[in-house]
Design brief:
It is a single chain. The protein is built from 6 helices and 10 strands. It is α+β, with helices and mostly antiparallel strands. Among the domains are: about 40-110, no CATH class; about 185-290, Immunoglobulins (Immunoglobulin-like). The strands form 3 sheets. The chain has a 4-stranded mixed sheet, with no helix packed on it. It has a 4-stranded antiparallel sheet with strand order 4-3-6-7. Helix 2 (about 45-60) runs antiparallel to helix 3 and helix 2 (about 45-60) packs across helix 5 (about 95-110).
């Protein structure tokens, strides 16, 4: 049976070994990471990394470089991860510009597939085979010397090499963005009575002049007791120019699209009947477009 002295000695040895191990691991020979990849970063540092990549993309428009940088994180779905980070940032009250940058990059990646460059054909591979042209000797004239006395002139046949025209490599198209200075106008407003949708769903779609979805447009909704702001493009699975909001019953809302943009007032969730005579809260669908 272990007595008190043996237990105390065992505990002292254990604590001494633990202290020496921590001293070596933390002070004497700590672990040093060399050439570590961004995939090993902590989750909050990964968020900062993505935000830096989105800021760089907004500055230079180089989508392939942004895609390459994001691939270092080894995320299974970069678009979904960027969208989730934008939604978390919006819920946490982070700066609106950060949310817009993340949403714009996610929409650009959603719209554009990676460009795979094929090797250009070489002149050697496309050169046509050169056929030998038969040489026809000239017909001797009566007063001319015989062919044995005068050597026949050498005939040189010039073969025309077809010129090679290599078409220019098409460049990837940029993500549609709003035309600077052009305001959006309300082009459509529909009442949606669909019991399969959430009650009071306000659906917003923003299009440019070519009717292409525009991500990153700020939307402000105000009512008597509050205000909420969000952006288009945070749900790329629904649409890059899409955003939505849940309206409460018996509340009047005012919507403003982008700072200094279009106002839409007197928005309220409609009352819709079911086939059985019951009622439920319907929704609205708004469509904005640049003229």
């Amino acid at each position: 049976m272990i007595n008190f002295r043996q237990a105390a000695a065992f505990l002292l040895i254990f604590l001494s070994g633990l202290g020496v191990g921590l001293l070596v691991a933390w002070v004497i020979a700590p672990v040093e990471y060399v050439d570590a990849t961004p995939a090993l970063l902590r989750s909050d540092y990964k968020d900062q990394y993505r935000l830096l990549v989105a800021s760089a993309y907004a500055a230079n428009g180089n989508l392939e470089r942004a895609r390459s940088r994001l691939s270092l994180l080894e995320d299974p779905d970069p678009v979904q991860v960027l969208t989730a980070q934008a939604q978390r940032s919006l819920a946490a009250g982070q700066p609106w510009e950060s949310v817009r940058l993340l949403a714009a990059l996610a929409s650009a990646l959603q719209n554009t597939s990676p460009v795979v460059s094929s090797p250009s054909p070489t002149l050697a591979s496309l050169a046509l085979p050169q056929e030998e042209t038969p040489t026809v000797p000239p017909t001797p004239r009566p007063d001319s010397p015989s062919p044995a006395e005068t050597p026949s002139p050498a005939f040189v046949t010039a073969t025309q090499v077809p010129s090679l025209v290599i078409p220019p490599t098409p460049r990837p198209t940029r993500t549609p963005t709003a035309t600077p200075g052009a305001l959006f106008v309300l082009t459509r407003q529909d009442v949606i009575c669909n019991p399969a949708l959430p009650d009071g769903l306000l659906q917003i779609t923003v299009l440019d002049a070519a009717r292409k979805p525009v991500p990153g447009i700020e939307i402000t909704i105000t009512w008597s007791s509050g205000e909420e702001r969000f952006f288009t493009g945070l749900k790329p699975d629904v649409g890059n120019g899409y955003a939505d909001f849940i309206m409460a019953p018996d509340v009047i809302y005012t919507l403003r699209l982008a700072p200094g943009g279009t106002f839409v007032s007197d928005l309220a969730a409609p009352i819709c009947p079911t086939e059985g005579g019951e009622i439920y809260l319907g929704g609205l669908r708004l469509e904005f477009q640049q003229p």
